[in-house]
UniProtKB/TrEMBL annotation:
InterPro entries: Lysozyme-like_dom_sf, Transglycosylase_SLT_dom_1. Signal peptide: none annotated. Residues 157-259 form the Transglycosylase SLT domain. It holds the Pfam family SLT. Belongs to the transglycosylase Slt family. CDD domains: LT-like. Coiled coil: none annotated. This is Lytic transglycosylase domain-containing protein.
């Protein structure tokens, strides 16, 4: 019969993981009376281990923690966001025609997208938060004498007028009222380009690039012609629908009682009359 020495058996038994204990006293003392007490750490009570011997029991109101509590999970690395820089002046923004506006210019500089209230000296840019040119009820512009744009995009406007059976003067009046003949404007509602087409309208009118002058004018003219057909050739209602949407015109059975829309319709009619005389 073979006997295994006890010393060898002991060697085969794996050593227990050392337990690290931290003891927190709930009692106050004159030395640590200003330190936080156990009541300030309610989560420690859940991790408490009941003392098992007289030595531990002699410690009054203690909580024993070992190294078996879970460690917090490391934070996942977040994807870096695109570098965007914005700057604004301390002064209000005043257009060259005396109408207060807030215009934000977007352009690229050294690989960084920059938003500024100052127009860049060179390069392409877009204007954001641009308000409909003729929609402000409190506009100080003299619409009967404001300079007209009689030569811009003449061929494109003439072709669109023939294609959709519109007067060129009406197309010019709407472009003037919407954007003052600026191709790169974006309203705070998301309308784009010369005739301020909303993304959904641009898609319906088969406009792929609303900042392309010819595509925008063709799309806007087509939409304007549809509205004139929907409202039996009534220019007031068609223009009101162009500004506020045909649903609002139908709901109010006329020009909606929105100050912006009413101002818009009145100014489009003024511009239309002036462009007809300027031919």
């Amino acid at each position: 019969m073979l006997f295994t020495p006890i010393s060898l058996l002991a060697a085969e038994v794996p050593a227990k993981k050392p337990v690290i204990k931290a003891i927190y006293k709930a009692e106050t003392s004159t030395i640590a009376k200003n330190k936080p007490q156990l009541s300030s750490f309610p989560d420690l009570n859940k991790l408490a281990v009941t003392p098992t011997n007289s030595a531990d029991a002699a410690i009054h109101s203690t909580v024993v923690l070992d190294n078996g509590y879970p460690l917090p999970k490391p934070e996942l690395k977040k994807t870096a966001k695109k570098h965007v820089k914005a700057s604004y002046s301390e002064h209000g923004i005043l257009s060259d025609l005396g109408v207060e506006k807030r215009k934000v210019y977007q352009y690229e500089k050294n690989g960084i997208t920059v938003f500024s209230d100052s127009e860049p000296s060179q390069g392409d840019f877009r204007i954001h938060l641009y308000e409909c040119f003729a929609c402000r009820p409190d506009s100080t512009i003299d619409w009967y004498h404001i300079p007209l744009f009689t030569k811009e995009f003449s061929t494109v406007i003439s072709n669109a007028a023939k294609r959709y059976q519109l007067e060129p003067a009406l197309i010019r009046a709407v472009i003037h009222a919407e954007s003052a003949f600026r191709t790169n404007v974006v309203s705070k509602a998301g309308a784009m380009g010369l005739m301020q087409l909303m993304p959904g309208t641009a898609k319906d009118m088969q406009v792929q690039n609303a900042f392309h002058a010819e595509q925008n004018i063709n799309g806007g003219s087509r939409y304007l012609a549809q509205l004139l057909g929907q409202f039996n050739g009534d220019m007031d209602l068609a223009c009101a629908a162009y500004n506020a949407g045909p649903t609002n015109v139908e709901q109010y059975q006329g020009i909606p009682p929105f100050p912006e829309t009413q101002a818009y319709v009145q100014r489009v009619k003024i511009l239309y009359s002036r462009y007809r005389k300027a031919r």
